Hints:
By secondary structure, the first copy, chain A, is an alpha+beta fold. Chain A has 11 helices and 11 strands.
Amino acid sequence: MRRSRRRVRAVRCLRDLGEFELIARIARAAGRPPPRSGVILGIGDDAALLRPRAGEDVAISADTYVENVHFRWRSDSPRSVGRRALVANLSDLAAMGARPLGFTLALAAPAALPVRRADALVAGMLHEARAHGCPLVGGNVTRARETHLAITAIGCVVRGRALRRGTARPGDRLLVTGTLGGAALERARAERAGGRVRHVATPRLSAGACLARIPAVSACIDISDGFDADLRQLLGEQLHAVVDERRLPQAAGFERACARLGLDARRLVRAGGEDYELLFTLRPSGPRTALLARRLGLRLTEVGRVVRGAPTGRTAGGWRHF
Amino acid sequence: MRRSRRRVRAVRCLRDLGEFELIARIARAAGRPPPRSGVILGIGDDAALLRPRAGEDVAISADTYVENVHFRWRSDSPRSVGRRALVANLSDLAAMGARPLGFTLALAAPAALPVRRADALVAGMLHEARAHGCPLVGGNVTRARETHLAITAIGCVVRGRALRRGTARPGDRLLVTGTLGGAALERARAERAGGRVRHVATPRLSAGACLARIPAVSACIDISDGFDADLRQLLGEQLHAVVDERRLPQAAGFERACARLGLDARRLVRAGGEDYELLFTLRPSGPRTALLARRLGLRLTEVGRVVRGAPTGRTAGGWRHF
């Protein structure tokens, strides 16, 4: 008994663990990729080997979650940090209409990071990885002053079918899945209550894959930075959208919850990030919204129409780095 | 005249530039991927799209270069930091026998990082990218307290031909390309002289691709952490190698240069990192060393032989994180 207690005390932070044991620990938690997953070689070599199907292109998306920028230990549970970091990447694959093949994790962390915290981060990531069939296939660990989770997600999409940005045309309909502002509201609510943020959005992978099979879908992006900011990214500099603000979808009770917290509901809907809904355009001749919603199995709202000309430059304040 | 001076002064650090302008700046520097490069869609969408050839697997390798861990502004030129960060990843592809398709960069940096420094970092990376046909295809930028370059390199290798670790057998010959200890000597020399490290090793991409076509090559790794440390990674826990230390290849004048600086030449050869030579095993019936050296177009030395049994545990001190 004494022996096991001593052992528990001895391994407390990453410094005690060492690089190779940390990697081995992550590899054990990840386990083997499921059979027929397309992973030929996973963690433990110079590179991982993945096998797309014949006629598929490879989609690659990289995103980083940084301590004190994207999350704070004070207000975020380590597990939800890990989950959200992977979801951000999976959502990028969803926005391309790609199916996930696997992901790499470059984990930079202070030597003093508690092992339990690192374990929870990784467990959160692996939870999402399993839920969405995107196994951890490799990466690296290094020490640093702050924790960074640099993730690269690799997916596959049938050639010529990937959903892009900047390919909408004037007259196209603008649609959005799910509801907006929920992630920002949850964050504000947790901050007010002094609690930890546990909310994690769902990457719209099957919706994205479904949209990629519909030729009338003309452009797509995921809402990571906020509706306004991502709309501009979707349409580029030559187009903008006339948006009926009243149609922007909110969850039931959203406005009341915002009012209770003294929050500007409109601002959260237009500029709240991390909702990870899909924002896409559809040729006017495309399927009716109600029909498409049934195919996607999601709430779907037509919120506006694409028109020619540069946007006015006003945004409701999406995320900007630097 | 006054006007242009004011403009030069106004943009000095990443904070002045902003996220989107930094991304646009990197994209401009990267330019378009060369035709027939396998890049279907590069920087600017939710994900990049790459196209392997029929019958190829995708090799993915992630590595991070962190300020004050892998480099210091004081002693490393920003350009060489960028070059070395990409070379570390390309070398992993080389060790798999893969040809590069493209890479993503997750750049985390302080808002106060001078734009000139960021430009030089990126220019160094793009220099290596062009030299080795591995275009920048995407990534992200974020602020952080320290600069991190998290790179994921994507390559291709003919199915079943990838060079792995842990696949050597007792009796196999152990070979190494080029010379060892040179990178560590250069670093020590620069530190003593108060100068900046400019030395950048060459990733052995064509040698790796050539080795992948030779069935007698049984296992391969690149020497990033040092000969001893990487040898253990190459062979795993069931095997070790009897190495003739006198045969470990050194550049001409290496011992003299070490002696002048009071450095332990043996230690640099066995534990100096960042040489990025290939360390591989060959079935006894494989080609003669001199013949193989000609095919690779590189100096090649047979340094030992693989034997059964766990290693003794003594290492000359390769890199360890945490």
